[in-house]
Specification:
By secondary structure, this protein is α+β, with helices and mostly antiparallel strands. Helices cover 36% and strands 18% of the residues. The protein has five helices and 15 strands. It has helices at residues 2-67, 79-86, 110-137, 194-197, 267-271; strands at 152-162, 170-175, 182-186, 201-205, 211-213, 216-218, 221-222, 224-226, 231-233, 275-277, 283-285, 288-289, 291-292, 296-297, 307-308. The strands form five sheets. It has a five-stranded antiparallel β-sheet with strand order 3-2-1-4-7, with no helix packed on it. Strands 9-8-15 form a three-stranded antiparallel β-sheet, with no helix packed on it. β13 and β14 form a beta hairpin. The longest helix has 66 residues, at 2-67. The termini are far apart. The model is unreliable at 78-85 and 97-107 (pLDDT under 50).
Length: 309
């Protein structure tokens, strides 16, 4: 009797152990499922953040490319449609020939057909030739050879240091009112102390083609009154802020910034002889002052009747 009672207790304990194991397995499964769901939610949130970051960087890259004169070409959207259209099998020829009628017109002779064909081809060739001639006569849109071709803006030098490979060059970071400062390389070391360059408000020509100067890409040019003996920065009026555009009375400035100048066309070289300081030091183009609308005119500190470049 005692032995049977012991066996019975052992069996009960074994059954309880089995039930406990089943419960533990269920709990482990639920924990795994919760952990997987939590990890999935976390990954989804991280993917959304990464997607936003990629979109932001794409927009930033496009802005930088546009600023540096790189044209943006839209992707074609109808390639697949065109390929499907081109691959359509030719339709079966229709046999819609009318039954011969009693009063049918006599068939055209071969000679008449040849004459019509020659007239049609001659007309097409003439039209193509005239169209080509008209296209050649249409002049390309010319870039104006006056000051409106220059993108002159106010900038603030937020950082300046000497070029690591050229003793006569400064490397400046200039805030032009854009998302990122522009890197500008200027040969002003011998003329202007570095302390006077820091935080200086200056005028920049922002649509020069970016060019490397001793290995560093310069994205604009600081406008200065210049002579063989002396160089001075042109001072904007009080209240001018980065991004303000320089305007000229009597010259219609476009709402958008002028396009980047092609160095081969020598646009700046054609305009620059008329950029001078007056006998009172006012920066001018053909005698018309550099002006910031509502704030005043731009001047050189001391240099008069000097070229500006």
């Amino acid at each position: 009797m005692a032995s049977s009672a012991v066996v019975q207790r052992l069996e009960q304990r074994a059954q309880m152990a089995d039930e406990l194991i089943v419960k533990l397995k269920q709990q482990v499964g639920e924990l795994k499922q919760c952990a997987e769901e939590r990890e999935a939610r976390q990954l989804t949130a991280e993917n959304a953040q990464l997607t936003q970051e990629v979109d932001r960087l794409k927009k930033k890259l496009i802005q930088l490319e546009i600023r540096n004169g790189i044209n943006q070409v839209p992707l074609p959207t109808s390639i697949a449609k065109a390929s499907v259209t081109n691959e359509q099998p030719p339709s079966a020829p229709k046999n819609n020939a009318p039954a011969p009628a009693e009063n049918a017109k006599p068939a055209e002779t071969n000679a008449n057909k040849e004459n019509k064909k020659e007239k049609k081809e001659g007309g097409n060739k003439k039209e193509k030739k005239e169209g080509k001639k008209q296209k050649q006569q249409q002049p390309a849109a010319a870039v104006p050879l006056d000051v409106t071709a220059l993108d002159l803006r106010i900038g603030r030098i937020v950082d300046v240091k000497k070029h690591p490979d050229a003793d006569s060059l400064y490397v400046e970071q200039v805030d032009c009112g854009e998302e990122m400062p522009r890197t500008v390389v200027s040969g002003l070391v011998k003329h202007i102390p570095i302390e006077q360059m820091q935080d200086k408000i200056v005028i920049l020509c922002c649509n020069m083609k970016p060019a490397k100067m001793r290995g560093i890409l310069s994205q604009a040019m600081v406008m200065c009154a210049s002579s063989p003996e002396k160089v001075e920065l042109i001072n904007p009026p009080a209240g001018a802020v980065p991004g303000d555009r320089v305007s000229f009375n009597g010259y219609q400035m476009s709402e958008s910034f002028p396009p980047q100048m092609n160095p081969k066309k020598k646009i700046f070289e054609s305009i620059s002889p008329d950029l001078r300081t007056s006998d009172k030091g006012v920066a001018t183009y053909k005698g018309v002052p550099f002006e910031i609308q509502g704030k005043g005119i731009c001047k050189a500190p001391t240099m008069t009747n000097s070229l500006i470049k």
